[in-house]
Design brief:
The chain is an alpha/beta fold. The chain folds into two domains: 243 residues, 3-Layer(aba) Sandwich (Rossmann fold); 110 residues, no CATH class. The chain has nine helices and 15 strands. Helix 7 links the parallel strand 12 and strand 13. The protein starts with a strand and ends with a helix. The relative contact order is 0.14. The mean pLDDT is 92.
């Protein structure tokens, strides 16, 4: 499991240490550095896949993320031009420094960088990895297919573009983690459990995916269960936007195995509050059973879903880490501050920093103010 990340001079992170857990949740206002933490890991994987690591440097433009050039990555008030990483796993580690070159999208690695023998066998660099960006695939009539991604990498793509293909090919296979089986699922097959979990978002949802080999595309449709019958097939464009947007998240989590690393941005996007809470329950169960999830979220409903999962012992509170990122506007440094509230076994949070999911209380105070 990925345990610790230390970053120096990385965007708005001057010198920050993050101790990860099975389920790690990053929160904060917009443009406070939440995405930067995930981007730092994505740059590492991107550079390794591009054969730039361990010998050449950090690739800032590629498959997973596009930063720009060295001046875009370097902390604005940096004392030097070195961007430093230290990543620690249970059995391996790496320490790497990269020189920021103002107009280059490849930052050369410094000679004092060190990589332990097994670090590139960790999930961050292998097929035990999944990344879903905040900008996921929108509803449409057909979707891309990729045998290499779904079979060799076990990946549905960073925007979820291969989700329909993944479901069509692997839908009848059993879940690797049996604890993810939904109580209302008829079998332990992936598709039955996708349907059961999706039905917590929109009742009676049935996902129908198939591959169209003649045009090398995958199709996706939805049906809905009523008291007496199943409806006709509906195109994704003709059902709620949120269904297709969340389907990659549900599929990625249910398709995971122990030891996998999932990075997910805003899993709750376009979902109603109950759906957000159900999704939090799903990721909590996955984390309790050996999947590591690093999640960026703006949703108090998602956070509360995790808290409820802890209270109901779906996940141990000791397997949850929360990070709240903020910035002191009175400081002369454009530097992020990181706080780490903790969830106890009853789902209670020990501190509520200013701006940490407190808008409901502030709005309620205004509504109750009779002045």
């Amino acid at each position: 499991m990925l345990e610790t990340l230390i970053l120096e001079n990385f965007k708005s992170l001057k010198n920050q240490t993050f101790h990860f857990n099975n389920l790690t949740l990053f929160t904060g206002l917009n443009s406070m550095g939440k995405s930067s933490v995930l981007q730092s890991l994505l740059l590492m994987r991107q550079s390794y896949e591009s054969n730039m690591l361990p010998n050449d440097g950090l690739s800032l433009v590629g498959k997973y993320v596009t930063i720009g050039n060295g001046s875009d990555l370097l902390f604005v008030n940096a004392d030097n031009e070195l961007i430093k990483y230290h990543i620690h796993w249970a059995a391996s580690e790496l320490s790497a420094s990269f020189k920021s070159i103002k107009h280059s999208n490849l930052l050369p690695i410094m000679k004092d960088s060190k990589f332990s023998v097994n670090c590139f066998k960790e999930s961050l660099f292998t097929a035990s990895f999944q990344y879903l960006s905040a900008e996921r695939i929108a509803p449409k009539s057909s979707f891309a297919v990729s045998d290499y991604d779904i079979n060799s990498l076990n990946s549905i793509g960073k925007t979820g573009e291969y989700t329909a293909h993944f479901i069509a090919e692997k839908g009848l296979k059993p879940l690797v983690i049996d604890k993810l089986k939904h109580p209302k699922a008829n079998t332990d097959n992936l598709i039955d459990n996708i349907n059961a979990w999706m039905s917590e978002i929109t009742p009676g949802t049935r996902v129908v995916a198939s591959v169209l080999p003649d045009i090398n595309q995958a199709s996706l449709h939805y049906m809905f269960e009523t008291a007496d019958y199943m409806t006709k097939l509906f195109r994704p464009e003709n059902v709620g936007f949120g269904l297709t947007y969340v389907l990659p998240v549900v599929t990625a989590v249910l398709g995971a195995k122990k030891g996998d690393l999932l990075l997910i941005e805003n899993p709750e996007s376009h979902l109603h509050p109950a759906g957000q809470s159900a999704l939090a329950k799903l990721v909590s169960i996955a984390a309790e059973n050996g999947v590591q999830l690093l999640i960026e979220s703006h949703s108090d409903h998602f956070l509360n879903g995790v808290r409820i999962a802890a209270k109901k012992q779906m996940i141990s509170n000791n397997k949850i880490a929360l990070f709240y990122l903020s910035r002191d506007l009175l400081s002369s440094n454009h530097c992020v501050e990181v706080k780490q509230p903790r969830i106890d076994s009853g789902g209670r949070i020990d501190e509520w920093p200013k701006g940490f999911f407190d808008e409901w209380d502030k709005s309620l105070d205004e509504l109750l103010d009779e002045r």
